[in-house]
Amino acid sequence: MVVDGIGETDETVDRLFHALADATRRDILRRCVRGELSVSRLAAAYPMSFAAVQKHVTVLERAGLVTKERRGREQLVRTDPDAVGRARQALDELESAWRARVDRMSGLLTEDVTGTGDFGAPAPDENTTEGPDR
């Protein structure tokens, strides 16, 4: 299935938002926006193992939010600004879809209150003799 307008699959969007769901990964992303950093330098900033930071970077890389480039012994991490834009676009599309749904519900409720829709038909009066039991 394709998300409207951006041509991204559900799986791609899921990876993107899974990556952004973690505070450490968001922080890594913010740090790398300012400029490329080595994985070892990133690891020094967190109270976790080098391997754990590498795993976070791998999740970000699979989501397309960062790229890694090996230079000598270092792996340099850089944020992909286009990927951040894709996340924003996916959120904008979700917002638009939900706003349209809320507008439709509001319209239906307005019709119901004003009596222009079928939803507000009055219930049969209990004191009338119409109906199968009377």
Backbone shape: elongated
Roughly what fraction of the amino acids lie in strands?
5-15%
Count of individual beta strands: 3
Q: Strand order of the main beta sheet, please?
A: 1-3-2
Helix content: 55-70%
The ordered H/E elements are HHEHHEEH
Poorly predicted residue ranges: 1-6
Q: Kindly, what is the distance between the CA atoms of the first and last residues, rounded to a whole number of angstroms?
A: 55 Å
The profile of the biggest β sheet is: 3 strands, antiparallel
Q: Structural class, judged by helices and strands?
A: mainly alpha
Q: Helices, strands, pairings?
A:
Blueprint: H1 10-20, H2 23-33, E1 37-38, H3 39-44, H4 50-62, E2 66-71, E3 74-79, H5 81-114
Antiparallel strand pairs: 1-3, 2-3
Helix pairs in contact: 1-4, 2-4
Protein described:
The chain has five helices and three strands. It has a three-stranded antiparallel sheet. The N terminus is likely disordered.
What is this structure, in a nutshell?
The protein has helices spanning 10-20, 23-33, 39-44, 50-62, 81-114; strands spanning 37-38, 66-71, 74-79. With 134 residues, the protein is mainly α.
